[in-house]
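Recall that a protein's primary structure is simply its ordered list of amino acids. Everything else, from secondary elements to tertiary packing, is in principle encoded there. The following example makes that idea concrete.
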Amino acid sequence: IVSRSIHRIGPKPFMVGGIPLIGVSMAWLSQLQTSWGYGQLVGPLLVLAVGAGSSFVSLFPTATQGVEPKRVGMASALVTVGQQVGGTLGLSTLVSVAAAAARRHARALVPQVVHHRISPAALTLLAEVHGWARAFDVAVIFAAAGLVIGLFVVRHSRPRTEVGKEGEAAAVAL
C-alpha cells in the first residue's frame, strides 16, 4: 500500500505516521511479563510491522529527493550505511540496557532464592524479562526522537505530476 501511494502523497506522511506505531508497539512490549506466550506478542508485533513497513519504505525516497539523478545511487548507499550503523548502535544500546536492568533485578531477587521463595531458574527468567521490558522503554524514547526528527527536520515536498513519453501523467515525489 505504501509503495503504491508514496508517489501520490509523498514520503513524509508515511514516515511520520509509521513512527508513532513503532513507539506504541515498543510501549506495549515494555509491559512484557513472564506469563506471556506467543499470543500476547502477536498484537505488538503486528503494530510494529505496520509502523516499520510504513516508515522504512518511505526512507529512501525521502533521503534521495532533490539529489541529482547521477548521484542517487551514492545517496542510497549512504542511507544504507547509516541504517546499518544506526541499527547496530541502537541494538547494542538496547542490549546493554537490558543486561544492566536484568543484572540489577537479579541482585534484588537473590534474597528470595536464598529463602527458597523462587528457584534460580525463576530468578533468571524474571530478571531477563525485566531487562527486556526496560530496553523496550528506551526503544520508546528512540521512537519519540525519530518522530521529532521526522516532523521537524525532514522536508515534505508534495509530489508533482510530469507527463511521460507516452503522454500519461506520472506522479514523482520530490
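The helical segments are 2-9, 12-29, 38-64, 72-114, 120-152. The mean pLDDT is 88.
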